[in-house]
Specification:
This protein is α+β, with helices and mostly antiparallel strands and about 190 residues long. It has eight helices and six strands; from the N terminus they run H-H-H-E-E-H-E-E-H-E-E-H-H-H. The protein has a six-stranded mixed beta sheet with strand order 2-1-6-5-4-3. Strand 3 and strand 4 form a beta hairpin. The chain is elongated.
């Protein structure tokens, strides 16, 4: 599949499903060059009403941030409708499993022009528990703020360092009961 991605899409028309699968493969292997090489000119993501456009170089920080959480994406369904690919995509990573205890699933529309991805639109959350996500995020942020203020602000830092701090915060929070028990035993 990587050889297909390396080909010049302008010289040889590659079908849309192959492009979508190559994109997911690049995400799963944290291959930045492969992923940005699939986009037409800039990297465009639209998530409901939230629109983000990055230069290919400007996308690097967000890509590195996501890669730290070891994401695994899967295309659950793919349909070519009205010259767009409609994808049902599952995403699982350490952060998502921590915040909602299971992968989340989205309905995405991939627009392709000239053999490259023009944009990817998340048009619907199909399996996302917003209440649980918010509750777990707030508990994590509040606990970190109180017990590890050196990590405060990790939730807003979408750089590689921010993701590493997020991972550290999840680890510390997950081990909080063990640490408390050890402290109690040592004081006896």
């Amino acid at each position: 599949m990587y050889l297909l991605v390396s080909c010049d899409f302008n010289k040889k028309e590659i079908d849309k499903e192959t492009i979508a699968k190559a994109y997911i493969h690049g995400l799963n292997t944290s291959n930045y060059d492969q992923v940005v090489g699939l986009f037409l000119d800039s990297v465009r993501f639209n998530e409901m009403d939230y629109r983000r456009t990055f230069s290919k170089q400007g996308y690097r920080d967000l890509f590195q941030w996501d890669s730290v959480f070891r994401p695994k994406y899967a295309i659950l369904e793919i349909k070519d409708k009205d010259n767009e690919l409609h994808l049902k995509v599952s995403k699982k990573c350490d952060r998502i499993l921590f915040l909602q205890n299971k992968p989340f699933v989205t309905h995405e529309v991939m627009k392709i022009e000239e053999g490259k991805i023009q944009s990817i639109d998340v048009v619907e959350y199909l399996d996302f528990n917003d209440d649980l996500w918010v509750r777990n995020r707030e508990q994590l942020v509040n606990w970190v703020s109180e017990h590890h203020p050196e990590l405060d602000g990790f939730i807003y830092d979408q750089t590689k360092l921010g993701a590493q701090n997020f991972t550290k915060a999840m680890e510390l929070y997950g081990n909080r009961n063990n640490v408390a028990a050890e402290q109690e035993n040592s004081s006896k």
